[in-house]
């Protein structure tokens, strides 16, 4: 479960790098009902996505040359400089060195040894997201990677992650690594790691993290995705013990997942 009681390794912020902020804001408003609130004077600058008065995500203009539009996952860090050193010592690279985010937090962005991009968030004035694990908000994260074993070791070294491997649903071959914060057990499971062949990840340029957003009705939300210029990579379909899911791509090419959680057994 993702919560706003952040501990080391918790997903504490997510933002979308979009080529056109206004278009992205219109799409996600249509899909989730999010309101876009710019942080500065620019009407299409970096800003928050807000639901019921609480920040659930953020969006900014994609400026990195050659980068694809994508969601970035920020993990809670008590010391972003220490996390940066740990990334380098573990074989990762620094994309954006530690910096101040207008006094709200200190952050840095990285690439893991397999190529997955992620970030760290050290709170100053803001702990991060204000609403999670409810319809229209972040409820899970996933890493699709070419080497799950190596990726697990890397993130364990950074954040102390603990893993539980479970069979893939529906009789599919392989396993899915459930991720929990250190000592958190099942109550602190926050996402999963899945190994995939390189050619299956080529459309994204390699391994990647993506967010999973909870919805009340997966089919209705998926229809809003396609009705507003997005596409579906998979689903909607039922995943035994998980719920009804759909893998989506927004009009700019950023991927995310919809999840209508299975009712409690």
Note down, in words, how this protein is organized:
It is built from four helices and 16 strands. It is an alpha+beta fold. The strands form two sheets. An eight-stranded mixed sheet has the order 2-3-4-1-5-8-7-6, covered by helices on one side. It has an eight-stranded mixed sheet with strand order 10-11-12-9-13-16-15-14, covered by helices on one side. Strand 3 (47-51) and strand 4 (54-61) form a beta hairpin. The longest helix has 12 residues, at 21-32. It is globular, with a radius of gyration of 17 Å. The two termini are 17 Å apart.
Could you give a quick summary of the protein structure above?
This protein has 265 residues and is α+β, with helices and mostly antiparallel strands. The chain has helices spanning 21-32, 80-89, 148-159, 218-227; strands spanning 11-18, 35-38, 47-51, 54-61, 70-76, 93-100, 105-111, 117-123, 138-145, 162-167, 175-180, 189-195, 208-214, 231-239, 243-249, 255-261. Helix 1 (21-32) runs antiparallel to helix 4 (218-227).
Strand fraction equals 35-45%
CA distance, first residue to last residue: 17 Å
Write out the strand line-up for the largest beta sheet, numbering strands in chain order: 2-3-4-1-5-8-7-6
Average pLDDT for all residues? 93
Point out poorly predicted stretches. Answer: none
The DSSP helix count reads 4
Order of helices and strands: EHEEEEHEEEEHEEEEHEEE
Number of extended strands = 16
Gross morphology: globular
Largest sheet: 8 strands, mixed
Helix content: 10-25%
Q: Could you tell me the radius of gyration in angstroms?
A: 17 Å
Find the structural class using helix and strand composition.
Answer: alpha+beta
